[in-house]
Structure formats: structure tokens, C-alpha cells
Amino acid sequence: MATTTLQAGAGYRSGLYEWLTTTDHKKIGILYLANSILMFLLGGVFALLVRVELAQPGLQFLTDAQYNQAFTIHASLMLFLFVIPVLAGFGNYLTPLMIGAPDMAFPRINAFSFWLLPLGAIVMLAGFATGGGAAAAGWTEYSPLAQAKYEGIGTDLWIVALLLIGTSSILGSINFIVTIFKMRAPGMTLLRMPIMVWTMLVTSILVLMATPVLTSALIMLFIDRNLGGHFFDPATGGNAILWQNTFWFYSHPAVYIMVLPAMGIISEVLPVFSRKPVFGYKAFVFATAAIGALGFSVWAHHMFTTGAVYLPFFSFMTFLIAIPTGVKFFNWIATMFRGQLTFSTPLLYAIGFLTMFLIGGINGAFSAAVPVDFALHDTYWVVAHIHYVLFGGSVFAVFAGLYYWWPKMFGRMLNETLGKIQFVFMFIGFNLTFFPMHILGLSGMPRRIADYDPNAGWNDLNLLATIGGFTIAASILPFLWNVFITFRSGQPAGDDPWEGNTLEWATSSPPPPYNFDHLPEIRSERPVFDARHGTSHA
Amino acid sequence: MALQVSHDEPEGHDQEGISNVILGMVLFICSEVMFFAGLFAAYFNVRANAPIWPPEGNVHFHLADEIALPLIITTLLIISSFTCQLGVWSIRRGERNGLIRNIGVTLVLGIIFLIGQGYDYTQLGFTLADGTFGTTFFTLTGFHGAHVLGGVIMLSVVLYRAMAGQFSARHHDMVEAVSLYWHFVDVVWIVLFSLLYLVPTGH
Amino acid sequence: MSIPRPRLPRPARSLVALLGLALLVAGCAAFEPPAAVTAQGQDTRDLYDFVFVVAVAIFVLVEGLIIFAVVRYRRKPTDTELPPQIHGNSVLEILWTVIPTALVVILFVFSWNTLNQVDAVSPTPSLTVRAVAAQFQWQFDYLAADGQTVQFAQLSPELDLPVGVDVHVILRSKDVIHAFYVPKFLFKRDVVPGLENNFDFTIDPADANQTFRGQCAEFCGTFHSTMLFSVKALSPADFNTWLQTQIKSAAASPSAAAASGGAAAPGATTVALTAHNVAYDQASLDAPAGQPFVINFTNNDAGVSHNVQITDGTGQVVFKGEIFSGPGSRQYPVPALAAGTYTFACSVHPTMTGTLTVK
Fold first, then answer.
1. What is the model's pTM?
2. Between A274, A307, A339, which is nearest C190 by CB?
3. Separation of alpha carbons A137 and A76, rounded Å
């Protein structure tokens, strides 16, 4: 089979120059993943700074100003330079492979999209080298606080960094959409595409329609700050709520940008490790599209307490968006039902995803009930919610994906024992950190405070959350060690170690340049399964 | 042994329908529409919140009174959309000279528009910092101007490649794509011009 | 199909079930917002309890299904044949679309209903207070019946309110966005510059003579976490006595009351205090009782922010001066204080502290 031709790609693994100039979607995908994981570690360091400071009342390690920079940069790194790009990295690596294409539609634009990201990271972090420090008004940069009279040049650098990252996203989304519509192999109809590809398609449409609005908002903020504009500061005739509307018009769909591909990963992992097809393929596709469409009509639920939005409409739409998510949940569970589950590391992370994302969905529903949101908004409840969605959800899916596709990317299996150790530590650490935050939020602890009243009853839970934070940090060590020993002496994977369903498992591990020597016949959403078992089961 | 890959040209995969380049440009224009939608939303917001529009205090805010030059460059920009399309039709028939001539005229008209707008800026009597009116006016027209500049650069590349004989009746996706972009820039200006100059008062 | 499946031994299963139940009960007990002290907060609390029951039911159902699948359908060595390749089931899928839809519609109707109660504003409130937020401090203006005239401006971050009557609060920001948040009201509302938000509430008469903590909930800059206030619930009679006293003493020194900008009353006692190297130059200050006075505060630490905040014996903040970065100075107009011993400290550096004797 395809494995024998691997050496033909002479110079495929040659050196730094190759990686810096590559336009191969697989290498670019790996660059995305590597850069994103680096940002994850860095963002984690800022998270630990925040947790260390909050472990006990009083300011022990950071000043107020440093604390504010730490949580602002933590969130900015994690959202814009980790979660979004890491999923784009999976998309980059997998989309052409999964649809039987040799590469993305625009390989050079693809490379350009990637290289904007490290540039954006450098610009954002350069804020720490300026006198006023990095951006410190929170990742939401609400105006007027984000205006020049309150915040220094770090905020300008943050704006420029987000413009770069946003441009990267927009170009990437165009690339994905054209690739998916124009580059599918013969027989790969839209309704035979893997769910992962569907989620990338819907995500790309969200990026394409939402990110430019953030770009316009950032440019207006920059004009306010540096050219004497009057968009967002009421003191000079502007409108503070206008910033929130334009910002959340992007940033709420962005939540789905950060979650849909993670759902796609889970929808690939669960069928393979259950030895069953995904339950209700079309329902998955429609639910994904519905989430994408509804995602544009709920942004103002971040603004219920502003007194400037029409509450019933946005409340109703927010409740409504729970339905397609619920459909997906039942489909995932039904995929496992009557299957034969193999508890390899990818499946563990997928089940972790189901459990944690379930909580993240349910605790979000509380805030859809507007009066309850009046109580919970801007408290630690919301911090718990966003982390159950984006860490318990997306990050667990990212690790499911890494363990699942690592053999394809590098031809070697990650160590299962270390993977399971990492999972246990991460699962426990995650819940230790973020579960107590529900209770902190209910008892009135606002987010983004550097210090709190020692008599408010928040001391123990904060200490617990900090211990949990370090447990998460500890869980990263077995992962890094795993990567190291796998590169040195990992067990060879073969083309298809998991008995996969989708086309990436029909080529060698790692795949050659341009991906395929030949393609199996595509008659369902599981061409490799069909080739393995004959089509009688399909 | 060499790889037996038949996909050496990425476009060779699924050739029905529009080409990758044109679809890519259509999507890019979608994102640009959303970008301008953000700016327009801000404009409508400040306009709706102002007690009267244009705000009092600066006679120059009444743009309808100084409409001669904007009207001329608007007309030129609209004409340039037609010349651009004539260029596209020429190359579809394989007429390279027609392409060069029409794109050349389009390019010149685009440059005249930019010069005209730049001159108009110096004559306006208010600046970006003059209240929400100045801020929205210069942001909207300025970013439109930046897009015209982008279009002029793209047209220059098309002209250069046309003169180098790189386009033919079968192979001219870039011409089609750039022409779509140029039409988009034109349409944005028609909306902007109508809003800023033709419906300038009231709410 | 009735192939025997490997199962946990019975005692282990009951243990797991018991442990799960214990965790659930413990979790539910901790999963409560504080008891609401306003009528509106109680409405919100009722809605919360309803949503919570639904949430727990959904969680138990879905999590139960996940755990069931994980336990029941593990692959056994004998599983060489593929399991049945089920692609879907229209009846089930319609069912689990329609039922959640009905559920969210019910949740929406309940929450909308509660929203109308919580958001209702009386045309004739018994008391109107304007909360004025500026970076890192609150001021509460007690307005006359016309809802405009300031009868008395409370400069210390303490909001005294009568119980059992309808209180109307208007929010105004002097700079950035803040949020008025009292956890025990189960309520917050943003204080947005350029926008006057307002809301009503009625404190439960049973909570008279209690004090509730309040805090800015919208991140508002460097010292956001110091932007605290307290709400003191008084019986209507006590409140009226208090308000009349305050109005009188404010009238006695009008400029001090209006002096949020920093102008001092002529002839008022002035006390000097300097901060240098993150320390005050004095450990004790004296001030006259029953009349406003002024602290001339100088901050000599370049780039470091300080202020002066005064707390009484019970830990209640009675005055909080503007936090500013040195070098610079401010005149803090302190309202009249009762005789006694107070603590003054820097909000930013709690180690900077001293004793204020009022006599």
C-alpha cells in the first residue's frame, strides 16, 4: 500500500528552511498546532500568575496593574492565539486529507495566514516592554476604559495584534471555504464529508462574516485613541455601548468558532472508538448549520446588564441555541450506545469533553434567564461557564484530536499510559479549579478583581481553585514528556492504527506531499471503513 | 520511485463552476461587506443619537453645499466600473489590446478619483477630530479611499500582466476577480456618497 | 440482545451510587445564591431555583446516559464482529429535538415573566437615590421628590436605605463603565457613561438594621477591586431621622457636601498627611467631631498610587478619597464624623495605616 512510497518525497523532512517556507498544508497545520500549544503554555503561565495572586486575600505577588495585565493577556492569548488557531491547525492539516484533496486551494495564502499569528503574538506581548505595560482593560477592552486617557500604548499594540490575527483568520476562512467547495475528490459529495469538515465549513463562514466587524471596531478604537476620533467615548460625543455591540457581534460567533471544530473532532473520535457510524449524520450537519446561523443573533446576551438591549429577543434566541447543541449531545451518546468502546486516550478525552461541555452548556442556560443573569453576570460564575465551554470543551477536544491524529502526523503513536495519566490529572485539576468558581460567583465574587475581602467567605474556594490550577499545570508535564519520548522512540503507527473511517487513514503516516497515491472509492461518509469491510455494512 | 500523483495542479480537481480565484475573491468581498457594515453601523448609531444631523457649529458640515467636486469624481468612478467591465469582455473574446486599453483607462480614472478625494479633504474645513461628524466622515471615506488604492494597485498588476501577454480568453481569472473587486469598491462609494452628500440632513 | 455483560460487583455499585448521591446533595446545598433581601431579588431567586431544578434534571439524565454507555458498551475480547451499524433513528431524533424545544420555551416564558417583575419601575417611588460612580469610588445623592434636586450627597461609600418601601436608583458614571452590584439583591446594573440606567427595589422589612456588601462588578481600571460600598437597611423611621440629620449637617457646610470636585469649605479644619516610600508620614491624626473637615493629602511616590480611606470601629468605610498616582496632592473633603476612633489607610496599600481620633 501507500507506505512504501514514503521515501519518494525526498527532502520532505529537510531542515528549518523547509519549515519556514513551506506551503504544504500538513506542515502549515503542524506549525499552527505547535505555535498554538506554545501560546497555550504561555497563556497558562499568566493564568497561574492570576491564580497565585488570588490564592489568598491581599496582594502578595503582583500589583493591581500587573494583575490586570496578567488576566487580560491570559485571555487574549488563550482565545485569539490558542483556541482559534489550534482548531484552525487541525482544520488545515485535516481538511484536504479528509476530502481527498492534494492541498488547500491557496497554499501561499495559507502560509501567510499562519505567519501572521506569531507576528501578532510578538506585537501583543511587546506591550510588556513598554512603560505602561501590556493591555490591561480585559480581553473585551470595553470603552471608555480602553481609551488613551486610561490605558497606555499596550492597548494600541493589542489592537494591532488583533488586526493581524483577524486578518489571518479571514484569509484562512476564505481558503477553507474554497477548498471545501472546489477541491473535493470525485465521489466526495457535500453530504459525505466528515463532520469535522462540516464544522470547519460553518466555522469558516462565521469567521468570514464576523471577524471583519471586529476589524472595523478595532480600527475605530484605534482612531479614537490615536487620531482624536469620537466613536466610543461618551465624554466626547461617542457611544460606549456601540463598542460592546460591534465587539460582541464578533465575539459571540467567535465562541462557536472556538467550539464547532472541537465538536467536529469529537464527532470523528466517538464513531471510530465505538466501531459505529456517527448517529444521525444529517442531524449533525443541520445542527452545525443552525448553531452557525443562530450564533449571529445572540451577541447581546453579553450585555443584558447594560440596560441598552432588547432583553426578551436576545434571551429567547439564547435559549433557542441550546437546542441544536442538545441534538448533538444526544447524537453523540447514541453513537456510543450498542457500540464497542475502546478506552484509548482519544476516547477518554472525548468523554471528558462530553461531561465538561455538558456542564458548560447547562450553566450557560442560567444566564439566558435574564433576571438570573442580573445576579450572575460578571461574577466568577461566568468565569466557570466560559472555562467549562472552552477548556472542558475545546481544550479536551484538542487533546482528543492530538492523541488521535498524532500517529497520522508523525507516524508514531503517543504513549497511552502517559496519555491516561495526563487525562486524569487534567480532568481532576480542571474540576478543582473551575467547579468552585460557580459557588464563588453565586456568593458574589466579581471577576477581574485583584484582591478580595478576607471576610467575604471566598478564601477556601480560591485556594482550592489555585491548587487545581497547579494540578492542570502538572498534567502538562506528562504530555510534554510524551511528545519528547515519542519523537525519540515512539512505536511506529502504520497507516491506520485506530481503524479509522475517513480518508486521512487511506494514505501513509505521515502522508506524502500532495497526500494520496490513490484514493479508495467514496460512497459514504466512511470510505476507509467501506474499503476495510466491504460496503455491505454501510 | 517517483510519486504517481495526478494532482500536480491544484485547480485540476473539480473544474465545474467558477474558478478558485474568483470564488476566493467573492468570499473576500463578503468579508469586506461585513467590514464596511461595521463602520456603517457606527455611522448610523452616532447619527441616530445626534439631536440634529449634521451637528451645528460648523457650516462645512453641510456637505451638499460643496458637492461639485465629489459629484465629478463620483461620476468618474462609476464610469471606471464600466471601462473595467469592457476590459473583462475584451479578454473574454481574446482581445488583449482591448483589455490593456480599458484597464488603462480604469486605472487612470481610479487615480484621478484618489487625487480628487485627497484635494477635497484639504478643502473641507473640518477634520477627523471635529465631533462625531468629522470622525465618521473621515473614517468612512478614508477607508473607502484605502480600498480604492488597493484596487488601483491590483489594476496596475493586471495591466502589467496584460501588457506582458499573460492573459487569454481561456486564462484570465485574475482579471475577472479584480474587476469584481473594483465593482464592489464602486458600489460602496455610491452608498457612501448617497448617505453623506445626498441624504445629509435630518435623522 | 441479552449477552451477559461484565458488571461491577453489587456492593461497589451501591457505593458508587451512594457517593454520587452524597456529592450531588452537597453540591446542591452549596449551589445557592445568598438569600435575597429584596422583593425583586426573591423573584429572581424563585426563577433561579426553577432553572436549577431543570438543570439538575438534565444533567442527571444526560450524564447518566453517558456513564451508562461507558459502563455498558465497553469492547470485550469476544467482540470480533462489528456491532450493529445504526445510522440514525428518525423518531428518536425528532423526539430529542422537540422535547428540548418545549423545555426552552417554558424556561423562556418563566424568565420573561420574572424579568417583567424585576425590571418594573414605579412612577411614584418613596425614595430616589442617584449612585454616581467614578474610578474607584461611589457617591450617593439623595434626591428630593422631584427626582432632580440633590438634598444631600453621601461621600462615604455607604448607601443608607429604608426597608419596606419602593426605592428608585438612578445610575450615573463620571468616567468609564462601572456596575452597581449588591450580591444579596441578586441584582446588578451597569453604570454606563452617557446613559442613565435606573431600577427599583424594595428591601424586605425583616432585614432592617443589616448591612449588605456591594461592589463594582464591571472592570473599571487599575484599582477596580477596591471599589466597594455597603448598603445599610434602616427602618423607615430611623432612615428619616438619619436623612434629616445628614441634610442639616450638609446645609451647615454646603460646599463640603457639593465638593466631590475637591473644593474645601472655607474655615473648615485642615489636616495634612503625606505619603512617601509607600508609608504615611504620620501614624495618628486628629479631627473635630460633628463637622466636615479636609485632609490635605500629598503623594510623593512617583508612579505609585495612594489615597486615604477612613473606616470606623466596625470596619465600615466612612470615607474614601480618590486614588491618584504621585507626585501630586488632593484636598479630600471628609463628611462630619461622630466622635470616636477611626482607622485611616491607603486602599491600594493596606499596610499604610494609622489612627484617626475624632473628638
1. 0.89
2. A307
3. 11
